[in-house]
Amino acid sequence: MARIFLVRHGETLWNRSFLYQGQRDIPLSERGREQAKRVAKALESQKFSAIYSSDLKRACETACEIAKFHNIDVACVKDLREINFGKWEGHSYVELQEKYPAEFSKWLNDPFETRPPEGENLRELIQRVVDFLKKVVIEHQSEDVLVVTHAGPIRAVLMSILELGAEHYWKFKISNASITVVNWDDSGDVGGDGSFIIKVNETAHLE
């Protein structure tokens, strides 16, 4: 089985302000850069066969910090981006309730089928993330791989392994610079007998 280390990027100023970032290319904050160094140190002794990252700055910066200890080039790819929130990016939860009350309520109740204006729904996020990681797993069978991405894609992987519905999407807390580890069946089937969760949202290295 392939073992996938899923790391969420470090903090950004938009994280601190509780704004929906989506695919806006926001860099790490000063605190986020420190978090990236800490998660890099925590993974220093781990051997990876490859390092993949979302191509957004906050993820690439985090991945490159980790890669310093491993002499591996980071492959930054679009498929590992956060969910596209479209016109909602840059707004807070409260602002969205005020500006898009009907659309936002519909999305919260049915994120699998509802898209933010000019964005994508949860089903589309899960599809692109899982499809990409299936290829990674087949290429790196029985190897350890690092994937630096966002909270949404990490939740998508956990939901796919557990075969959960959309109502469970927000039940997983995925903190900045946290480590989540899963085993993924070498067949590429995320729901296969060889797929299971090892750890979720480890943050001891940040304390």
Give structural notes.
This protein has 207 residues and is of the alpha/beta class. It has a single domain (2-85, 123-206), classed as Phosphoglycerate mutase-like (Rossmann fold). 36% of the residues lie in helices and 17% in strands. The chain has seven helices and six strands. The chain has helices spanning 13-16, 30-42, 57-67, 93-99, 101-109, 122-139, 151-162; strands at residues 2-8, 50-54, 74-77, 144-149, 179-184, 196-202. A six-stranded mixed β-sheet has the order 3-2-4-1-5-6, sandwiched between helices. Helix 3 (57-67) links the parallel strand 2 (50-54) and strand 3. Helix 2 (30-42) runs parallel beside helix 3 and helix 6 (122-139) crosses helix 7. 39% of the residues are buried.
